[in-house]
Amino acid sequence: MSKKEVLVINGGGPLEGEVTISGAKNSALPILAACVLGTEEIILDGVPGLKDVEIMIEVLKHLGSKVEYIGEGTVRIDSSELNTCETPFELMDKMRASFVVMGPLLSRFKEAHTKAPGGCNIGARPIDLHLKGFEALGAENIVNDDAISIKTDGKLIGNEVYLDFPSVGATQNIMMAATLAEGETIIENAAKEPEIVDLASFLSKMGAKIKGAGTSTITIEGVEKLTGTCHTIIPDRIEAASYMIAAAMTKGNVTINNVIGSHIRPVIAKLIEMGADVEEIDDEDIIKVKVDKRLKATNIQTLPYPGFPTDVQAQFMALMTICDGESKIQETVFENRFMHVEQLNKMGAAIATSGNRATIAGVDKLHGAEVRATDLRAGAALVIAALTAEGETKVSDIYHIDRGYSDLVEKFTNLGADIKRVEI
Ligand SMILES: CC(=O)N[C@H]1[C@@H](OP(=O)(O)OP(=O)(O)OC[C@H]2O[C@@H](n3ccc(=O)[nH]c3=O)[C@H](O)[C@@H]2O)O[C@H](CO)[C@@H](O)[C@@H]1O
Ligand SMILES: C=C(OP(=O)(O)O)C(=O)O
């Protein structure tokens, strides 16, 4: 049996010092997928060193793109000659987000084939809105068991697409499919996340004509072809929020570099409301978080951007476990995103759930325990909780954490944490 790794964390004092945030996973993945659309060389900077990024690069290589690292976080991609429009089935199983390569493939080749992404730990995660968008552009979706073929005999033709929910992935897939379609596509009730804006800005540099990214209505005027460009991935707002929460939970004093405050407005607002001292140094993309007292309880509801991000819900719940008073969380984006509750309760938290609502009664302190990262952000929440818990915590199934946090052990160690990756 192959060896597994766990994180061993001994709770200690406040985190102190500086941490630099990496490029955003959720921008890097669709932007890498979009490289399939370019017929000339593309250089991407700020590509985070993450398992998910490795998988997306494997997908690109399988399709025939030439991909090489030419510096730390700098990748050169040449997709001038691709040899297939079928994604490798086994990689779809490893990462749902690889479905976002379908829009670019369909746009470039008028057909794309893949395995239907399954549900995951946080919810069923259907792809009906992606398929509805492809169909509106004139493609036929053929779903057979778990294989999906999307194709059109003629051209993709621009159209209006209304999304029943502002899905991030569907907005990205439809936007990319529309770049080389004939005429105008209008996506109504589009997702407004910063990662959508980053993707649109990347595509525009390649020659796409896109207006309205960051608002609910995105208009794409199809062009003949997309070329090469250079682009720097935006900072990871979820990673930044995770370190801010860790600083707050340990009553620390941490300077977070490479963070865009406007991307995490709800997290900043809630931390301030709870009593944290949060200073934004905007011109320099720096946020300082300082806490020297017990924070007050609060309530949050997760929502699509610019609401409170679901990807920060678990980490915020960890913080709430030791606040003064009772906090409440309502998760409205995913139907099953409370797997971390049982694990946090193992550490002495007092959390009760009912459907998509959680009530967190603040306790004096948490204690170390053997816990399991049930998904990516659940894993981050457990690490953050362990940093202040009394005694030792072992977090297993850390492959989830490796999907989304680059150099996590190094970054927390630099801030003074006692955290090690250990083979078992
Ligand atoms: C790689 C990436 O960027 N992942 C992010 C992206 O995921 P992802 O793009 O998968 O998230 P979506 O915005 O699509 O999903 C939000 C909700 O819409 C539902 N839905 C989505 C598509 C669809 O066709 N039908 C449908 O019903 C989902 O099941 C979910 O309940 O946005 C999520 C919401 O901010 C984040 O948590 C993820 O970190
Ligand atoms: C849910 C997440 O990612 P993905 O959509 O890739 O599963 C996340 O980043 O928290």
UniProtKB/TrEMBL annotation:
Residues 10-411 form the Enolpyruvate transferase domain. Phosphoenolpyruvate binds at K25, N26. GO terms for molecular function: UDP-N-acetylglucosamine 1-carboxyvinyltransferase activity. Pathway: Cell wall biogenesis; peptidoglycan biosynthesis. The modification 2-(S-cysteinyl)pyruvic acid O-phosphothioketal is found at C120. Its EC number is 2.5.1.7. NCBIfam families: murA (TIGR01072), PRK09369.1 (NF006873). This is UDP-N-acetylglucosamine 1-carboxyvinyltransferase.
